[in-house]
Amino acid sequence: MYKASPHYVKLSGKNLISIKKGEVVDNDKRRFVRTELDSEVKLMHSEMGSISVRTRDISGGGVYLLTGDKVNYPVGTEFTLQAMDMAGEAPLVKAVIVRLEPDGIALQFYED
């Protein structure tokens, strides 16, 4: 937890912006920018089968899915995703749970 300081400002979420001598430095470690997205996704798992869920946001590295209590798997569980709001059949994408929250799961994309 960061202590309040005239040199640090927490703007939103987990991002911490450092302000020193007029310079602004974003201390967020993310490699990709998140974009809000409300879209239907098919979430597939060998034990669970498939369910339809909504996205909250997406980036080049992953996606946050609003699953509520539909998904009860630990961090590290692998899934296959498919966008459902596209014209034509969307490709299958592999992803792994990296964070659990009360309203959903954060998944990181990966390739085999």
Give an overview of the whole structure.
There is one protein chain. By secondary structure, the chain is mostly beta strands. It folds into 2 domains: 1-30, no CATH class; 35-110, Thrombin, subunit H. Helices cover 0% and strands 49% of the residues. The protein is built from no helices and 10 strands. Strands 5-6-7-10-9-8 form a 6-stranded antiparallel barrel. It has a 3-stranded antiparallel beta sheet with strand order 1-2-3, with no helix packed on it. A hairpin with a 7-residue loop joins strand 1 (8-9) and strand 2.
Summarize the structure.
Helix content is 0%, strand content 49%. It comes from Thiogranum longum.
Give me the secondary-structure topology.
Layout: E1 8-9, E2 17-20, E3 23-26, E4 35-36, E5 40-45, E6 49-58, E7 62-66, E8 78-83, E9 93-101, E10 104-110
GO molecular function: cyclic-di-GMP binding
Domain PilZ: 28-109
Protein name: PilZ domain-containing protein
**Gross CATH architecture of the largest domain:** Beta Barrel
Low-confidence stretches: 1-26
By DSSP (H or I, 4+ residues per run), the number of helices equals 0
Range of strand content: over 45%
Terminal Cα span: 36 Å
3D shape? globular
Mean pLDDT: 81
Strand order of the largest sheet: 5-6-7-10-9-8
Order of helices and strands: EEEEEEEEEE
Query: What is the CATH topology descriptor of the largest domain?
Result: Thrombin, subunit H
The total number of structural domains is 2
Structural class: mainly beta
